[in-house]
Write a structure and sequence with these properties.
The protein is α+β, with helices and mostly antiparallel strands. Among the domains are: about 25-85 and about 120-225, 2-Layer Sandwich (Beta-Lactamase); about 385-550, 2-Layer Sandwich (Heat Shock Protein 90). Helix content is about 55%, strand content about 15%. It has helices at about 1-25, 30-85, 120-135, 155-165, 195-200, 220-270, 285-350, 355-385, 395-405, 430-445, 480, 500-510, 535-545, and strands spanning about 90, 105-110, 115-120, 140, 170-175, 180-190, 210-220, 390-395, 415-420, 425-430, 450-460, 465-470, 515-520, 525-535, 550. It has a five-stranded mixed sheet with strand order 9-11-12-14-13, with helices on one face. It has a four-stranded antiparallel sheet with strand order 4-7-6-5, sandwiched between helices. The longest helix is centred in the middle third of the chain and has 66 residues, at about 285-350.
Length: about 550
Amino acid sequence: MVTDSYSSDKAQESRIKALYIWLESKFSLRGKFIVAIGAIISFSYMLFLYRVSIVDNELIILQAQQQARMLYNQILITRQWVSEHNGLFVIEKEGVEGNPFLDLPTITDQSGNTYFMRNPAMVTRELSEYSNQKGLGSFRVTSLKPVNPANFPDEHEKQCMINFEQGSAESIDIKNTPEGRIVRYMAPLDVKESCLGCHARHGYNQGDIRGALSITIPIDWADKKIKNNNRSLFFIGLISFILVSITLLLMFNTLVVSRLHRLSLAMNSFPETEADQLILPTGYDEIGNLSEQFAELCERLVHSHKELDQTRQQAWFSEKMASLGILSAGIAHEVNNPLGGMLNCVKSMSEHPGDREMHERYLPLIDKGLRRIEHTMRQLLNFGRQEPLQFRKIDVAILLGECLELLSYKLTGITIEQKNGLDREYYVDAEALKQIFVNIGLNAIQAMQNGGTLKIESEMHDSELRFTFEDTGTGIAKETLTHIFDPFFTTKDVGVGTGLGLSVTYSLVRQMNGTIEVESELGAGTKFIIIIPVLQETQMEKVGDGQNTPC
C-alpha cells in the first residue's frame, strides 16, 4: 500500500511537471503575463462578488428578522389594546362573520344593528389577511392547545413552541418554498392580566405561555434584487477586465515586448550590425539599463575581438617563423649540397678559362643547382608569408604534396605512406591548409626521433575534406591529451618546440568551421583526423570569389 501511494504521488508530480512544461512551451512572456494578471483580477473580482452576495444576503435576512421583530411587537401592542378594551366590535355587513368560539359573539344595539365581537386572536388573523394581500407577509396565532382548530400548529411551529416551554426566547429560520425564500419568525405569547378573562377558565395563569405568534415574511423580492445586482456587477467587472487587459497588453507591448524584440534583433544582428543602430534610447528603467549594458558589452566584445585577432595573427606568424626555423636546419643541408658543387665548378672553370669543353659541361650543372636553390627558397618564402583566410579554388592534393616536399628535408629514417582520394579542385584556404599540414607533419616527425612511418590519407565525404595523419611515434599520455591544443603547452625539450603549433592548427581548423580529433596511446603512436567543409559554387557566388575572411 505504501508503494502504491508513493507511485501515485510520483505520477501526480510527473503530470504537474508535464503540464508546467506544456504551459511554458505554449505561452510567450506576454501570454504568461496576461494570463497571470487576468487570473489574479478574475479571482479577486469573483471573490469580491461572492463576498458582496454573502453580505447582501446577510443584510436582507437581518432586515427581515428586524422587520419580523417589529411586526411581532406591533401585533402584541394591538392585541394588548384589544384585550384591555374587552374586545373589539364591528358592525355586521357582507363578509363579516361572528366568532362561534366566544362567549359573547354578537350584540345588538337599540337601533337593531348587530355587532360581531373580535378578540385578539381574530384581530390578528384578519390583520394577517390584509398584510398578505399587500405582499408584506403573514402572521397567525397558534397554540399546542388551541380553542379554534384553525390555530393548530404545523410541525415547525409545534417544535418551536416546545422550545419556548424549555426557555427559548424566539425562533428564526430561512425556508425555501416554490415561490421563493421566506423568513419564519416565532415568539411566545404570554398570558397578561387582561387575558385572564378568557383564558383563566382554560387553566392558564398570568405569565404562562398560551401559544406563539408565527410570522412569515417573504424575501424573494430581495433575492431578485441581489441577483440583478450581482448580474450588473458581473458585467461591470467583465467590462473592467477587458479594458484593464487591453490597457495592460498595450503597455506591455510598448514598454516590454517591443523593446525586448529590438534588443533580441540587436543580439542576433551583432556583430554584422552595431548595437547602437538597433537599440533606441528607452529611458532609465530596467530594460533601458539592460540595453545600455548590452551596448557596452558589444563594444567590449568588438575591442576584445580585435585584440584577439591581433594576438592570433601574431601567434600564427610566430609559429610559422618557429616552424620555418626548424625547417631551415634541414633545408640548409639541401642548399649546401648544390652550392658546394657549383663552387667547385666555378673554381675549376676559373682555373681553366680556355677549356671550352669543361665550361659546356659545368654550366648546365650550375644552372640546375641554382634552379634547385631557387625552388627551395620559393617554398620557404611562400610558407613564411602572412595572409588572412582567403577561399579560392585549388588542387588540395598538389598543395599537400608541396608541404610534404617541404618537410622532406627532416625525413631521416621516416617513411611516408600516402593515400590520396582527391581528384579535383576545391574552394578552401590554401595558406591555412599549408600551415595545418606542416604543423601536423612536424609534430609527427618530432615524435619519431628513431624513425618510423607516417601514414597520410585524404578523401572527400559529404562535402567535407577529411585528412588523417597517423604516425608510429612515442604517442601521448592520457593526462596530457586534453591539453595538447592549449597555447604554449609542449612536452618537447627546450628549443625543439614553442607550444603554439597545435594551438594555431586548432584555431585555423575552427576558423574554417572544421573539426580536429586526436587518438593516441603512449608508445603506440598518434592519429590526427582533420575534417574541413568546403564551399560550394553557390556559396562562393554569395561571398564572392576570393573573399577575405578575418583570421
